[in-house]
Write a structure and sequence with these properties.
Layout (H helix, E strand, L loop, with lengths): L13 H4 L12 H4 L4 H8 L5 E4 L6 H8 L5 E5 L5 H15 L7 E5 L6 H4 L3 H6 L3 E6 L3 H4 L2 H4 L3 E4 L5 H14 L7 E2 L1 H11 L3 H15 L3 E2 L1 H5 L11 H16 L3 H13 L4 H16 L5 H16 L5 H13 L5 H16 L14 H5 L37
Parallel strand pairs: 1-4, 1-5, 2-3, 3-4, 6-7
Helix pairs in contact: 10-11, 10-12, 11-12, 14-15, 15-18, 16-17, 16-18, 17-18
Length: 406
Amino acid sequence: MELFEQSGSSKRPLAERVRPETLDDFVGQEHLLGVNKPLRKMLEGGMLSSFLIYGPPGNGKTTIAFLAAKDRKKVVISATTEHIKDVKKIIEVLVKEKNFSDVTPVVIVDEIQHFNKKEQDTFLEPVEKGDIILIGLTTDNPSFYIISPLLSRLSIFVFEKLTVPHIEKIVDNAIKKDKLFSNYLITPDARKLIAEASDGDARKALNLVEAIFDSTGKKIIEESDLKSFTGSATLLYGEELHYDLISAFIKSMRGSDPDAALYYMYRMIEAGEDPLYIARRMIRFAAEDVGLKDPNALVVANVAQQAFHFVGPPEGYLALAEAVVYLAKAPKSNTLYIAESEVKKTIEETGSLEVPKKLRNPVTKLMKNWGYGQDYKYPHDFEGHIVKGEKYLPDEIKDKKFYGEE
């Protein structure tokens, strides 16, 4: 728990040493911090109010919270380490001190979702009365983890994942700004690889930069230096390898090779790939490559995703592995995928064909007079619940076949 900003030190991590001190130094989140955008207008307008930032790690949430609290007394709380009893005492002190100041103190709560719903009630009254300005930071969807009464008192800003160009610019700015590394250089290829490996996390990228400089002792870092840095798969997991591994993973399952599929899955995990991305691709695979040959494959893939989301790493990896083996060994059919392609192609070629009037719902008397619903045959009135010879497609394509039987 941090009561005031502490003086800087060259021994602090690079990410801390080069933290932006003004909005103009900040990189990313243009949709909120560009000229005349909502968050920038709040921060520059001098009318600061309580808000919450939701977004992935390392994209500037903490930096913006610090800039918002600049020139104000602030408390920084980590919900992952602090006890709510201590937080209550701090807030009580701040409320008392506010009686002797015209400036409302700021309480920054990192990972606020880790306070349970009852504990979050602690912030309600002081926020509502204006005794504190609360700035909540979270990497989890606040709709699920933050109580509604508190959400209703906060402005919600969604931070997006930083792009590779964003990270490259942040790395460049950091080297130029930092006193220790201002005479150092990273070649464009090396910088891009670091940016790709960081997966949108600026803090991770800057930590890599510092570690590389410190370990190599070189002032000019090239791509080859990254490869010899630790041999870490994560560092070398650039955009190309990302696509190569996921392609090999899908093709191995399609080829019914569970061993290869498991190998590529764990290669991706060890390289730092988002496991939920792998789960999403498995769900797509279950529909595209297994289809109705084994409808349970889609169930297994979905349950694996839910299990991982619930359990988390590393235990949750086994749920993904189980689904991978199941999908690899399942019988294969791409008839649904072919049907999808044919349907989309037909729609593109024929445009907006009229729905047959017999299939339209005559919700008004006028629509009934127009022939809506006329001659419609209710399948349940027929043997086998099928109207033999009946056509349901628009007349222009009434005999078209999209889905081939399994």
